[in-house]
Each structure stands twice: as structure tokens, then as C-alpha cells.
């Protein structure tokens, strides 16, 4: 019961947070829109109420859609990553195993022979002991010596494999840095840092594919002709100008379309 109560409280808190995110205060926006208009306070209040309700509804709908799509995309991405990672690990292990067997075929063969010899000698020793035949202990030390040499060989082999993996990772990292550095030469310092952040989680399959991905990100984020953010000091257009035409409303950016349409309606109502 305690766990259920805590879960209910967490759900209520999440719902309250979501509800707060839907609430929109457009007082300043309405004031800016009708600042130079001779409109009554009642009209301004109604306009504010209508705008806030409409925007909050759209925000809520959009958040719900985004959350659902985000969860769907996340699940699909996780599954894809798991499958891809599993395949890569399997391929790598198969490659390492095959390569190791090829390079150590002789050592493996000798190791098997040593194991067989050790089993044979131990069995022979037991047989002698059962029939009261004494064999000097130092004669069996040869097997132990061979086993020790085999262990040393395996340790050295493991060290070499680990070193090769480390070197491969270092080479890959150097190639990544070189590609990013070359792509950043024309960019400003801040843009170079931004490009570096964008490429941190990009998969590195090979140099050519990684270079293509970096070029794509560079062109997408640092090309000319991007929309510029409107500053808080932007001057609101005077009411003496003509109402916005239908074409201007249709061609406005999606996030400004509602405001543009509202300005046109207010201007017509005032006439």
C-alpha cells in the first residue's frame, strides 16, 4: 500500500508539472499586439483569454504527440542499437577467435599434446604406484614445467591482444579528431566547439563514412541563410501600417502564423 501511495503521489506531481507547462501567460504579447490600438480593456481581456486557451490547447496536443513519438522512436532506437551491437560483438569475437587460432595454431596443438601427455603420465604414475613400482618424482616435473610455459605464453598473448585493441582505439580517436579539425577550419571558435559537441556521439564505422556525417552536420548547422532569432528589443510595427495580407499570413513561419492572423483580425475589427 505504501508503494502504491508513493506511485500515486509521483503521478499526481507529474500531472501537475505537465499542467503547469500547458498554462500560457500571454499578457505581454497581447499588450504588444494592441499597444497602439484604441481597444477596450474588456476586448483585450477576451483576446487574452482566447489566445491563451488556443495556445495551451495546441501546446498540450503537441506535447502529447511528441511524447508518444519520442517513446516510440526511443524503443525502436534501443532495439536497433541492441541488434547492431550484438551483431558487431559477434562479428568481432568471431574475427578475433579465427585470427587467434591462425596465429597460435602451433601453440594450441602443443597445448593439446601437453594435456594429453600430462594425463598419460599421471595415469602411468598411478599405475606404477598401484603395482608398487617407484618412479623418481623429478621425472614428472617435466609436465609441470611445460604447463608453466604454456601459462606464460597465454599471458603474453593476452597482453598483446589487449595492447592491439588499445592501439586500434587510439588510432580511431586520432582519425576522428583529424576529420573534425579539418572540417572546423573555416568556422569561428564557438562554431568549432558546437561542431565538436554535435559529433561526440556520432558512430565511427570508417574514416570515409564519419567524414560524410561530419560534413552533413556542418552544412546543416552552419550554412548561411538561417533564421535569426528575434531579440526582445525588436520594435513592434506601428498600427498605421496596413493589415497583413492573406499571402503574408500563409507565408509566415508556423510559430508566428497565429499571431499574424490575430493582428489582421484585430486591425479589421478596429476598422
TrEMBL record:
Region (Disordered): 1-22, 232-253
Coiled coil regions, renumbered to chain: 143-208
Keyword Protease: no
Keywords: Coiled coil
Biased composition annotated in UniProt, kind: Low complexity: 232-242
Biased composition (Acidic residues): 1-15
Keyword presence, rRNA-binding: no
Official protein name in the record: Prohead core protein
Organism: marine metagenome
